[in-house]
Amino acid sequence: METLFEYSNRLLNGVNTTFTRYLYDQINWKNRLIGIIGPRGIGKTTLVLQHIKNHLDPRYTLYVTADDFYFAKNRLYELASHFVKFGGTHFIIDEIHKYPDWSNELKLIYDYHPQLQVIFTGSSVLDIKKGSADLSRRAVLYPMQGLSFREYLLLFHKIEVPKFTLEEIVTYPSRVISLSHPLLLFSDYLKKGYYPFALEPDFDIKLFQVINQTLESDIPVYADMNVSTGRKLKQLMAIVAESVPFKPNMSKIAEMLAISRNNIADYLLYMEEAGMVSQLRDETNGIRGLGKVNKVYLDNTNLVYGLANENPNKGNIRETFFMNQVRVHHQVVASKNVDFKIGTMDFEIGGKNKSLKQIKTLGNGYVVKDDIESGYLNTIPLWYFGLMY
């Protein structure tokens, strides 16, 4: 355990706490069992290390990563029990999905050590959700996604901009935000601002590593797929990437990938849960709340630029950005009249020359335009929607 403490303290010493993600202040850190889940590369590890450094006593706090070689011969539960005997109060487990039988051991730790708080992170949303049924009465799960445009401005350029609710954005579209050259910064964000590791060298290489590890390892391993199925996932991702956006035709896709059409919906759902794609569903009043899939987008614009063979379609980028940013606080569904519907509001997305024609007959319609700095009446700049978290 001494070696684990040394590793934990070494990581803490290198953590910068000047910038924290949007989720940091939304978590109730007093819960006994906290799970922070989300795609690879979005800053979950940094977030928990910042919490330790800011609020916990390192003498009684142990951070471990579940793929540590230590766990080749030792159980998670046994380590927690040993830690408690020496006065440990906070046990932080990173990438818990890499530990076999993590769900059962978390339950044991929770039930037998009520004085110990456990915080865990998981890169594979699929695996966390698969095991969370048994933990539903114990764990509080917090989903997390990549940087908003607002967070990018602060982290990359030290520019502080206030948060705005959706209601504030649509009510005051002409509000001038003191931000010089927002369109230049916005363009850079769309290409490489969603993942914090874009601050480091070789962003393109690291982005492809995230994609490959998610499709070739995370999903196949934890959804009980074989290696060849992982390759099919990459092919399906390529199909989505080349579309503008992708309207799923299950029979056609099945023919292209030489697989059963019955598997396509499952594959897309796995990819959505893992943060690779985003599915826009029809509005419905049914029990499940959401209807069939209307369109499929890549999860964020960095993936669009990273996977585009040539210049990506601008319309696709605009719609991908809008859906990605707004979904954090709102349910976004397909609209019969325009691109998106949120509650009673309809949104049509386009460039600076987009007309108001499609929203003229709508009582609560808005045109969201790219390449404009400020809004007016029912016209709102696209980049404004990146200031919501």
TrEMBL record:
This is AAA family ATPase. InterPro entries: AAA+_ATPase, AAA_14, DUF4143, P-loop_NTPase. It comes from the Bacteria. Residues 30-157 form the AAA+ ATPase domain. It comes from Flavobacterium fragile. Pfam families: AAA_14, DUF4143.
